[in-house]
Amino acid sequence: MKKIAIILSGCGYKDGSETTEVISTLISVSRMGAEYQCFAPQIEFTATDHSTSEPGEARNTFAESARLCRGQIQPLEDLHSEEFDALILPGGFGAALHLCDWAAKGARATVLPAIEKTIQEFNQQDKPIGAMCIAPVLLAKVLGSKEITVTIGNDKETTQEIEKTGAIHEECKVDDFVTDRAHKIVTSPAYMYDEALPHLVAKGIDGLVKEVVEMA
Amino acid sequence: MKKIAIILSGCGYKDGSETTEVISTLISVSRMGAEYQCFAPQIEFTATDHSTSEPGEARNTFAESARLCRGQIQPLEDLHSEEFDALILPGGFGAALHLCDWAAKGARATVLPAIEKTIQEFNQQDKPIGAMCIAPVLLAKVLGSKEITVTIGNDKETTQEIEKTGAIHEECKVDDFVTDRAHKIVTSPAYMYDEALPHLVAKGIDGLVKEVVEMA
Question: How far is A26 from chain B (nearest CA, A)?
Fold first, then answer.
């Protein structure tokens, strides 16, 4: 049975992982007959109230991520790439806030060392990596110099920043995905289209997951 | 376009709405071409850390529920049954903790007045109601004297308590659902099977949502 590692960054699109993106990923991986394990870093952050957008109390990315996978979460430092066949990075603003500082710095962002190491290892071991929504910027930052192709949909500003890393951007509809077969990178825009319908987001992610699992 | 009201009780199965159940519902309603609006009560509660199961800080069901629907949440008191064609109640322990006190009292539970009123109104207006996981106990408490048929899977203790309300319990597999056509009640066990696979939970919920939307 193929094993997929999934990295979360909290619970909720304003300060963590996007909930529909994560759950769609879990459903699709499970439907493909593959196994998954979710991981998250231990980072303290100021929560954003999702009903008001106001800043709230201090929370932890690890404890919040556990809400999306029924508590079956492991610390990011326990993710050993040799134990998995593929890696998937869901989106949500947490990916650009906690896994790197792209939200503040764009192409000049620094990626969390454990995330950078994980992406490098899966890529060097010729294992597929899937990323959705804003998370492809992590792949651009780490693997951009290899001229990988990714999509984040059609957002101009993010596309320009991505291309500064050396990565190539390809436009993509919400219910579709882009495959860079040479580098085994699969990306889908998901909620980069803010007004997207849940079933179209789920369709794009289902395509991404199938491609990743089949390539694994 | 048919309009479906969905009532949430937080975010995460230990102290709120079960995340896979809610997101599966949103995806299925959207795929059916129906519209949805999520609602939640304003209840302060002690959060449960989903990575440790330890009690944590005070949170609010309304603000936490907003994490599951990209902030598009409305207060429960703004749910006017005449504006909707059907009602869906996802599960998670929040349904038995915040929407009633079934978790502590079983069949002797008291249902939150706004929830009782909403269930009564949809039923009186001959509009379908869907409920999953532990949430069918809310229907049993409010409509049990009408001898409605519901499922919560095959858990013996919960079944016995449900039957004390007058409701009839029918066993059901995780990927299936039970329809009481006379009362327009549709229920699916979802994560009452604790070890269920996400795609089987999603399949049962997809069947429930199709039935509810078609009956609406």
Answer: 7
